[in-house]
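Service request form, structural biology core

Requester: graduate student, group of Dr. S.
Request type: structure prediction, single chain
Budget code: on file
Notes: please return the result as structure tokens.

Sequence provided:
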Amino acid sequence: MRNSYKKTLIALAVLSTLTTNVLAEQVTDENELIEEVTVVAKKLSHANHEIDVKMTQQQSNISSVLAVMDNLPGISINEGDAFGGDDWSTSITMRGFSIDGNQQQLGMTVDGIPNGGSNYGGGAKANRYLDSENMETIEVSQGTSDISSASLEALGGTFNFVSAMPEFEKTTKFALTTGDHDASRYYVRHDTGLIFDNTYAYASYSTTSTSRWVGEGSNGGMTREHAELKFVTDLGKLNITGRLSYDDADEDNYNSVSKEQFEQTPDWDQLTWNWTGIPHFDQMFAEEFGLHYAKIP
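Core staff response, request fulfilled:
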């Protein structure tokens, strides 16, 4: 009985092995018969925003083009002064990713063209290439961007600043903006209308000046000259768009104060107008500008 039982177990084991091999061969044959399946889908980005024209009208013309994005949810723009004249201290944060003096985690392009680095050293933000009056919209992509983006930075999101197209009619625009603390801005733009039977173009020039928010002095302010040229030429099957910008800015950075310091002395920015001979205090020297006289009896 025992020998018969052992033989039965051996037979079952051999049969099980043969059955497994046959099933594996059948599965392999079926897999080889599976047709190739190709899935084609349209690339879709989520959480995108596009600046509306009404949003640009909420900001002063003297403000930088970056300030317009501050109205969008999830984006925080921090600038050193009210008009964005202190580009060194400007920072942009979107959903935990930042652009500041040390980080470049957000991409920035102008008309889809990369502008180099977007922090203060080694590159420039879009406000160096574009005046607010010449901006049509800003395309904001929140979240990690794909490899097709033209930006040079690590991509935690992208901002594409789109410049306005030339007008079809010949026009000339003038704008004057004034504000507190000697803030002023002059802007002029001329649209050529149709020229050479196939080209539309415009040229603009602006000069901007802002000064210290408190006190006087030649430091603690910004002067900027900016010019732009854009043309669109239709050659039938070929359409050519060209753009040229010039920007010359002279910045004297503002002094940052904490909320507690401002509440203690809202009329003082923690700077000094007198040389003391003590380096710790003299490093906060602000050049005084004014006319001093003595009354002689």
